[in-house]
Amino acid sequence: MKSTSSVKIFPKRKRKACITTLFTIRLSVKKGSGAIFRNGLLALFYLTFFLSNAKSQNLDWPTFRRQVLDNHPLAKQANLYRNQAEAALLRAKGGFDPKAYTDLASKNFNDKQYFQHTEAGLKWPTWLGLELKGTYNYASGQFLNPEANLPSNGQANFGFNWTLGQGLFIDDRRAGLRQARIGLQQGEAERAAALNDLLLEAAKVYWNWVAAENTVRVYSEALRQAELRNAAIRESFLQGERSGMDTLETFIQLQNRLLDVNFAQVDVQNTLLALQVFLWETDNEVVETALIPPSPALLAGEFVPLPPQSLLELAQQATIQHPTLRLYDAKLRSLDVERRLKNEYRKPVFDLNYYLLGNGWQFFPTAGTEGIGVFGQDMKWGLNFSYPLLNRKARGDLQVTQIKIAQTDFELRQKRQDIENKVQQYANELNTLAAQISLYRNVTTNYRTLLDAEIERFNFGESTVFLVNTREQLWLDAQIKFLKLLSEYRKAEAGLQWSAGALAN
């Protein structure tokens, strides 16, 4: 586990070490009865040490978040978006790799060698639409075509193919490379969006689990108080100071507290199973529920409204850095490259090729020519021109791409507005919950004050068990509602960061 926090899930290697140590101690007991007590203490020490190391500290949100980002399968899958984009870029760069080749053609019939043509060379495409080419040709045979006759020691060629019309400024290879480079940013945006969504789901599950465990603690404390009160009332009944109805009243209250604890424990078990889905070890195995540390106290931390300036900064950040908006921006830039390519296809095909011809490996074999005129001797060149008269295919392709750009731009505008609204909605929810928490904290305190006053009256004989139980139930309900508000605040806080695309930052 790569978490920088001090809280760590109980790793598998320590569980194995614990089992090995206990097994060794168990074998050592057979060596002598005098060591039984000492070995038993050692076994207890090791068991206590390892188990306390597993669950001695709380699983706070930063540790849980780091655990999800490091080990969750979906987080690892999100990292593959970047690797996939890098692989696509490598493939696009391959379009400009030099290419060595060899062509051999031979014909033999009726004990006669009609011809044998051999060509070996190297092609090197460049960024300017210029392809450099160097070859060596050799030809022999009794029935060679006159144009295929070469010097006896073969012929070296060096020249180029240059697209001066369609493909001069951009072609499939250059467009693919540009789109692959844009794909790097697109892959990073897809990764950030996936992690952002993953952490939102993880935050909801986490704070539900924290609220459930805190609820169990509240009900457990209420159960302990009910047990103490029931025992005290029973003792008073045995001494003739209380009636049987008071005893029955406290016993019913005790039963209700037991039911509350049981229902709350079921919620903890269910939320713990949901939490387990997000907790994985480095070896791609899910963490066992028994080894998950307890939750922190939900009351920890601040629950304050979001300042207007912070909301403004968060909204501005969302419109610039949100993964979904970056994804649309990359898509638009990729479509713009496609538009340029489609527009290039509207031009006529006009290709020029030129090759110097050598006598064997000797270039410029013709004597008597000087200066630039040497390039007009011992060479071959050619032109290729074509253009469809109506050119409807190229014009149609360009229009289709322009429509895609317009559609994507409309989608981007709508998505940007949706994100701004989401940020505002979560900010409104957060501020409302902060106000409700501040209000209900006072409500809970007031219910506790009433309960303490009712207990004081009961001790002086001025109240009844029923009134005490009623006051306690109201105070207990207020605590549970207060915990739910705290949990909803934390989920709204995570939702606000998610809406701005910053939850995984």
Could you name the key traits of this structure?
seven-stranded antiparallel β-sheet, 10 helices, alpha+beta, single chain, 2 domains, about 500 residues, 7 strands, disordered N terminus, Outer membrane efflux proteins (OEP), about 60% helix
Low-pLDDT parts are 1-8, 10-56
Report the count of strand segments: 7
- CATH homologous superfamily identity of the largest domain: Outer membrane efflux proteins (OEP)
Global structural class: alpha+beta
Could you please describe the fold and organization of this structure?
- A hairpin with a 2-residue loop joins strand 5 (349-359) and strand 6 (362-363).
- Strands 1, 2, 3, 4, 5, 6 and 7 form a seven-stranded antiparallel sheet that branches.
- The protein is α+β, with helices and mostly antiparallel strands.
- Helices cover 61% and strands 13% of the residues.
- The chain folds into two domains: 12-73 and 189-325 and 408-499, Outer membrane efflux proteins (OEP); 92-176 and 338-398, no CATH class.
- The radius of gyration is 40 Å and the shape is elongated.
